[in-house]
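Researcher: Re-running this chain for the archive, since the previous output was lost when a drive failed. Same request as before.
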Amino acid sequence: MPSLRLALAQFDFPVGAVAPNAAKAGELIARARSGGAALVAFPELTLSGYPPEDLLLRPSFLAACAGELAALATTTRGIAALVGHPHGEGAVFNAASLLRDGRVECTAHKQVLPNYGVFDDKRYFRPGHESATAVVDGVRVGFLICEDVWQPEPAAQAAAEGAELLLVINASPWDGAKQAEREAVLQARARETGCALVYLNLVGGQDEVVYDGGSLLVNGDGAVAARAPAFVDALLWAEFDPATRTLSAQDWPVVADPAPEATLYAALVRGTRDYIDKNGFGGVLLGLSGGIDSALTLALAVDALGAGRVTAVMMPTRYTSQLSLDGARAQAERLGVAYHVIPIEATYQAFIDALTPAFAGKSADTTEENLQSRIRGTMLMALSNKHRLLLLATGNKSEMAVGYATLYGDMCGAYAPLKDVYKTAVYRLARWRNEAGMSSRVAGRPESPIPTEVIERPPSAELRDNQTDQDSLPPYDELDAILERFIEREQSQAEIVAQGFPADVVRRVVRLVLLNEFKRRQSAPGPRATTRAFGRERRYPITSGWH
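Model: Regenerated structure tokens:
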């Protein structure tokens, strides 16, 4: 029995770009046909992009998707194409249609609707109740959509209808633990059904979510036959042998660096690039303080956009150390970005002088410290407006968790690349970027992109003399270990203390997390990297009696 040749479109299909998405799909159908594929597959909700959210409530949007699907079907002479789209049929379904010989041959409706984490499928879609299969080049193929493969019933139903191969189209967001989970699920489905599985995933950044691709081929015995690299756009070719129910990849791109830091860094770069470019900004700027967070953010921005689209600004006061001044300038020069030094000491003193009568009888405290941060925020926003550059916030997840950030100060910004990255991971990424490097637009420069002294110095906000972060917070190794247990694992204080952490430290950290929800509600979006990202995934009440 001859093999079935497949093409898998691991590409980005942006939300709302219905006509451009259809045009891209049409071009890829033509490429797949010329390459001898009998079937080309596209990701979940190809035409609308994922997640389209409340665009699905607009009849005109659904009509546009339906019109593009019908037009796309006319391009499928001599090839079959599985295309994801919203399907309005009284109710709205998350659908995948098989297009062949110029028409829509059959349509599968997503049966299992996720409604956890970043997913809100039940807000928009009705569930399907039947599997869909079709014969392509003598092979019966079953069609599943994303969450369908995470439960055994849809795959079992397709297998009962004679499917030899299951083709699963996905818009599965990335986090650091996701790939291992996917492989375990796919292997279980293969062993249960005896079917081989093709897992095709979307790639690209969409607001706070990043899709990694990472498509997979799994044989009928559960063995992983091939893994596509993460965050790489590619038309992937595969062959299915129905006699042995095995799959083989045809010249897939290789994973350049399998280290977790490499994948996380690629996720942050992709999320940042896509947010900037999809929203039409020519470039970005950020406050470069001489500290580790802004240093890593600058490296990410340059790798995402190129040095010519990045501006860094140092805004010193009396508390800014020479180490910070030297480190910031060294990094800006190494990366080749536009760099400005705008002292704010005179502005700060003018604010203090103006406020002194109203502050009479009050000793200096964090008010004066936050004032410096807010002056910087105002300066950066003015530069953003004047030069039409998007402002990047540079804070990390550890700081946002405990509120170690200033509203309308260092929290100013339209996008925060490190929002879901713990401080300890910031250090790991900075060291990886220096030691392992990456294929970036600043490759070839002899110096490390992040000065070593910036990485090794004690972290400090430099808002008062001799200040360090550990004046206000536990050491970051301890803080992050507690935060990971409380936020990611949802462990109780008692459970965390039982693991050897000091009770008073745990109580203090948890109290700070719960008190600072109001700040996080006002923070900029940033790429999701963990299993419990602040924002659309972790939503706690601001006003709450639960402590």
